Amino acid sequence: MTAVTILDSNAALASATRMVAANRDLLIAIAGVFFVLPGLAGAVFAPTPAMTSGMTEKQMLDCMQDYYASSLPVLLLLSLLPMAGMLTMLVAMLDGARPTVAQAIHRSLVALPTYLAAQLLIALAILPLSMVLATVLALILPDKLAVSAALGILLYPIMRTMLVGPVVAGTGERNPVTTIRESIRLTRGNAGRLLLFIGLAGFVFLVVYGLLMMFVGVVLVLMFKGEPQRLLGEGVAGVLLAVGYTYFVAMLAAVYGQLADPDSGTPSA
Questions:
Q1: Do 93 and 19 touch, CB atoms closer than 8 A?
Q2: Which terminus has fewer CB within 10 Å in the chain: N or C?
């Protein structure tokens, strides 16, 4: 049996930081096109309906159903752009030949159908499993606790398939089943380390994001009213989320580089 490569999260974090710094200008352009602009477009053309405290649960459900029914085409398009952006960033960071933005976008668009197919296969496997787990656990646990426990158990398969994007972008593989198998192979013995690595980074980002948005919210309330206040808030939130997502993608690229080629370490910046 092939020896298991143990993830070094400190080295992966250092490599991710180097990759972001080395590709800063290219990543800024990609993040602006694929993350910030779609977020602003969604805020303008498909704004989330406002929920009031006086609404009943049925009214809120009807409101959200109407929203998704009317905005589904726009939301689907806006969800595809960040996926393409993630693959574009991965191509840029994993290719030592340093492709241009146009070359990275072209390669990501070619890889996008494979990535989508792989994610669909993963969802088709995980969703029925989650329902079965929740049903079984509900026999011995309260409903809310059963759902929480089922979601916690599902973190394992999610971590095992976390590297599908880097595999698609880094190898050019076009068979979605093969990309899933490769992700499972690479993450063997590292699901817990991946969860701790990604989870801690996500927690830190959420704390920083929450504090910054509280400050920005106060400033916007004092300086602007109505629609300008909402759009500026969405713009600032979009930029912060784009920064966070860029580092998340860099972390995936660093983990992939370390586990796929342990002898050479993580990808060079």
A1: yes
A2: N
**Pairwise CA distance, residues 137 & 139, whole Å:** 5
Q: Where are the alpha helices (DSSP H) in the chain?
A: 9-22, 24-31, 37-45, 57-94, 101-138, 143-160, 164-171, 176-186, 191-223, 226-260
> Residue 179 burial by CB count (10 A; 0-12/13-18/19+): exposed, middle or buried?
buried
Mean pLDDT value across residues 75-97: 89
Determine how many CB atoms are found less than 10 A away from the CB of residue 44.
11
Instruction: List, for residues 103-154, the tens digit of each pLDDT value.
Output: 999 999 999 999 999 999 999 988 888 888 878 877 787 877 877 777 788 8
The full set of domain ranges for the chain reads: 9-260
Residue 242 pLDDT > 60: yes
- Measured CA to CA, the distance from residue 78 to residue 48 in angstroms comes to 14
**Residue 123 corresponds to which tokens in the numbers above?**
């969802």
| Largest separation between any pair of C-alpha atoms in the chain | 64
Long-range Cβ pairs for the range 174-183 (8 Å, 24+): 174/111, 174/114, 175/114, 176/114, 176/115, 176/117, 176/118, 176/121, 177/118, 177/121, 179/114, 179/115, 179/118, 180/118, 180/121, 180/122
Query: Cβ(220)–Cβ(232) under 8 Å?
Result: yes
